[in-house]
Design brief:
four-stranded antiparallel beta sheet; alpha+beta; eleven-stranded mixed beta sheet; Dipeptide-binding Protein, domain 3; Dipeptide-binding Protein, domain 1; 533 residues
Length: 533
């Protein structure tokens, strides 16, 4: 049974509940009316409500490496530099920076910046933020981002130096990542006090995030909603909104109903099969953004039969990506040949992934001793697209006598389980907010990063490790490109995962919401957003 059949089946099941929730729009052939671009006055109530699929895991910027958490933290904390709409690095908390020598970068900080607790941004706070990230007692899943740092030096109140163990050209790009957020020195000290009292790292910070961003944390009801309010003492232009509420709405149809009835201003994500419904709403439009996200099916290389490369290759060759794109993604994605997405330094458009070939897949399974197949499980969180993909995989692998049990797991437990290696097959995505290949592949495939940092495939290869290390240490851009091209060929052949698609961020937005945007890393741009009357 092909993926389209699953979709029709699911639509039939969901039709009645959908009608009970809210009346759907009529089918029309004409284009929906474009949002009114006329400039009007902001509405009196400026609380932006975002209906989102998954809750944050942690508000400690060192405490997790998932997108739902980062989307919140991105608007509470700030980093030294930031990527603009053209993917160029721009000053943020740093006004300038330079490479002093091959191992040393110096940053000049912006003066007069206040944290949400009223303390001032200084080089000491910058140093404390990175010292905490590098602290083995914190065990941050984002350590890989800055593991090349030797030390952070305070030159004076507004000058700080980063000394690396080897030349590392992408350092400024890494500093733009939300893992490079600068945290209040007071909050860092309070969190260490909690640790001294026997609590886990992040016990204080995740409940009391203190950054310099244009929004300040107000409240969090895990599994329900999180609210942040405007920080009126922000160093730059204040946010136009009074507040932003992230409301956790796991059901896709409920998110759409809330958007349609005006109960929510933004629905994120919109499932590809629901794009036309949003486009036909009188009060909303689709915000479709190209992002540096690679969706993949991973295999636990530590567990039989996935410890055999032939089995991994066979399954990868038995899945038709075009079926998945046409069905689950409704055409809003492109096939992924390898792990590095277009728009990221190191992407090689000339490489070819493993072909779709069920006959060859059967031969590989027979060579590996599994001609009669085997039983396994595939994990996914409660993302409808991923569930569709899992069910499609389940159906297609029956042709090879592989029985697949689909397990849908809550997001937090899903991350914990895949980090611990409890899984066999799983579905996830990986974004590259630094726009550099080092981030795209180092966390996912280096043996030092098995588990929580990103290598949930538990893939270990001395050859890949050597190329990954060389790629981050090589200063010459052309040489780096050659290294990452060679690496991608190995990662395709070793098949620790099936590289599915490079996809897009799909959000439904109320017509009255102005200036909303999404970064290539899927972060929400909320500083200039307002709700018109």
């Amino acid at each position: 049974m092909k993926l389209k059949s699953f979709i029709l089946f699911m639509l039939c099941l969901l039709l009645i509940p959908a009608l009970l929730v809210a009346c759907g729009p009529a089918d029309v052939d004409e284009d929906p009316a474009a949002p009114d671009d006329e400039v009007t006055e902001p509405a009196a109530d400026q609380d932006l409500i975002i209906a989102t699929l998954s809750d944050a895991v942690s508000l400690d910027p060192h405490g997790s490496n998932d997108v739902p958490s980062a989307k919140v933290c991105y608007n509470i904390y700030e980093s030294l530099v930031v990527f603009d709409e053209n993917s160029e690095l721009q000053p943020l908390l740093a006004t300038s920076w330079e490479a002093v020598d091959d191992l040393t970068w110096e940053f000049t900080l912006r003066e007069g910046v206040l944290f949400h607790d009223g303390s001032e941004l200084t080089a000491e706070a910058v140093k404390a933020s990175f010292d905490r990230l590098l602290d083995p007692d914190i065990a941050s899943p984002r350590l890989f981002l800055f593991s090349m740092l030797e030390e952070v030096i305070v030159v004076d109140d507004y000058t700080v130096q980063f000394v690396t163990q080897f030349p590392f050209a992408p350092l400024p790009a890494h500093l733009a990542h939300s893992g490079g957020a600068i945290i209040s020195l007071n909050a860092i000290e309070a969190d260490y006090e909690e640790m001294a009292a026997g609590n886990e790292p992040g016990s204080y910070l995740s409940q009391n995030p203190v950054g310099t961003g244009f929004f300040i944390f107000e409240s969090w009801e895990p599994g329900n909603q999180l609210k942040m309010v405007r920080f009126d003492d922000y160093w730059g232009e204040n946010a136009k909104l009074d507040s932003v509420t992230f409301r956790v709405v796991p059901e896709s149809l409920t998110r759409l109903s809330e958007l349609e009835t005006g109960f929510a201003h933004i629905a994120d994500p919109v499932e590809p099969s629901d794009i036309s419904r949003v486009e036909n709403m009188d009060n909303a439009f689709m915000e479709i953004t190209s992002v540096t996200v690679m969706a993949y099916i991973g295999y636990n290389c530590d567990k039989a039969p996935f410890d055999d490369v032939r089995v991994r290759q066979a399954i990868s060759m038995a899945i038709n990506k075009e079926d998945i794109i046409a069905g689950a993604y409704e055409g809003t994605a492109i096939p992924a040949e390898g792990p590095i997405a277009p728009g990221v330094f190191g992407h090689d458009p000339t490489i070819s992934g493993l072909p779709y070939d069920k006959g060859m897949a059967a031969e590989l399974l027979a060579e590996a001793g599994y001609a009669d197949g085997f039983s396994t499980t595939i994990w996914t969180n409660d993302n409808p697209v991923r569930i569709m993909i899992a069910e499609y995989v389940q159906s297609e692998l029956r042709d090879l006598n592989i029985e697949v049990d689909v397990e849908v797991i809550e997001w937090g437990a899903y991350l914990e389980g895949t980090a611990a290696g409890d899984h066999e097959m799983f579905i996830l995505g990986w974004s590259t907010p630094t726009l550099d290949a080092d981030y795209a592949v180092y966390a996912l495939f280096h043996s030092d990063n098995v588990g929580d940092p990103g290598n949930r495939a538990f893939y270990r290869s001395a050859v890949a490790d050597e190329l990954l290390d060389r790629g981050r240490q090589e200063p010459d851009p052309d040489t780096r490109l050659a290294i990452y091209s060679e690496l991608q060929e190995i990662l395709i052949e070793d098949a620790p995962m099936l590289y599915l698609v490079y996809n897009e961020n799909l959000a439904g937005v109320n017509n009255n919401v102005k200036n909303f945007g999404v970064t290539p890393a899927s972060m929400f741009l909320l500083q200039d957003v307002y709700i018109e009357q």
